Amino acid sequence: MASNLKPTFGYTVVNVKDVAKSVDFYAKAFGYDVRRLDESHRWGELESGHTTIAFTPRHQHETDDLTGAVQVPKSDSERPPVELCLVYTDVDAAFKRAVENGALPVSQPEDKQNWGQKVGYVRDIDGLTVRMGSYVHASKQD
């Protein structure tokens, strides 16, 4: 395969009820800086390193007609088929900050020996699962 055909991962787009509220929530709960929130509040972006976390309304005639309607879980026992994974050096402090700013705690941070990292889970204001983890440590060879 030619190297010019390898893509760069550019965006994760999250379909939300209210773009402005979600942008504000992620800035406060997870510590992101807002890159952009357009005047119509139909598109927002966060500074997240090499990629971008973007928000757009769940229901858009422009894309619903092309790609289908966004499906939302019907109950708290269901979740969307995707989760955001955010990496922190201090997972406990990040988890605490997220919950203090409106994230719903799902699972307190704990060491996952098999994964080589510490991981906790919260849900955002739209019910999306957010994994908050440390950097993955290389496994030790015996």
TrEMBL record:
InterPro entries: Glyas_Bleomycin-R_OHBP_Dase, Glyas_Fos-R_dOase_dom, GlyoxalaseI/FosfomycinResist, VOC_core. Signal peptide: none annotated. It comes from the Eukaryota. It holds the Pfam family Glyoxalase. Residues 8-135 form the VOC domain. This is Uncharacterized protein LOC110412901. It comes from Herrania umbratica. SUPFAM superfamilies: Glyoxalase/Bleomycin resistance protein/Dihydroxybiphenyl dioxygenase.
